[in-house]
Amino acid sequence: MANPDDAIDGIRRFVELARTIEAGVARTVTTYRPQIEAILTSLGEAIRSFEAGHQQKLTLYSQLYAQVVPLARRGWFISGYFGLSEIMELASICGTATLDDLDRRVADMYRSSMVDHTESLSRDYATRTFAIQPAIDAHGRCEYALSVPIFFAQAEGIFYDRTREYIFRKEHGRDIRDEAQKQLGALAQAIEPYDSFSRFMEIMWRPFADRLPYSESTRSKHGYAGLNRHTVLHGIALAEYATEENSLKAFSLLSHVGALVS
């Protein structure tokens, strides 16, 4: 039978050890209190800075979200191949700039980034460089009558390869709008408070959830006289479509779709 005195002695030694540890911890905390407080202060500031930055990003995303459909109705799409700083800079003016101002800004963005976006497309869709690169070269030579239809065709091909849905026509009653609505529905269920990536993907899919005039078989449905894939590829549009702006717009669709489904 165990001796009770031995058990009591063990407890006493344990209590003494605990008191020794407690005293040591107290001395350590006292000695390093300024450093600990500084660390905690810095951590708190970092957390507040992160939350403020994240909230600012969501605010800018909301401003951009409000403009992606109006821009798409004018033929412009905002590619995920742009750097975050470029997208945030555009988003920052979306709350105050007119659509004409945004037109010019997006055109300038694509002029300065076309080479980078082409490299990204070549990396992600190497089997399509045989068509994309000559179209880029034609754009560089101001031969927009050649670049526009190829940009449209390659955008359609990339999207169909990845989703089995068309951009410009329905198959079995479905097209890009159905895929966009499916993706947006899934994103709405998945978004968490700090999930800025899903919010960005909402921006990328949103333009395709509605039918846009660039894809209509007749432009008159929208009282629209701008760039239209059907009139270009079927030879209805004449020299009026072969402009730098229209080539940039068609490229914006190609770049946007390429980044979206890569």
Plain-language structure description:
- Helices cover 71% and strands 0% of the residues.
- By secondary structure, it is mainly alpha-helical.
- It has one domain (55-260).
- Helix 1 (4-73) packs across helix 2 (84-94) and helix 3 packs across helix 4 (129-140).
- The protein is elongated and about 100 Å long.
- It starts with a helix and ends with a helix.
Percent in strands: under 5%
Largest sheet: none
Q: Calculate the mean pLDDT score and round it.
A: 85
Provide the structure class.
mainly alpha
Structural domains: how many? 1
Outline type:
elongated
Provide the succession of SSEs. HHHHHHHHH
The protein's oligomeric status is single chain
Number of helices: 9
The percentage helix is: over 70%
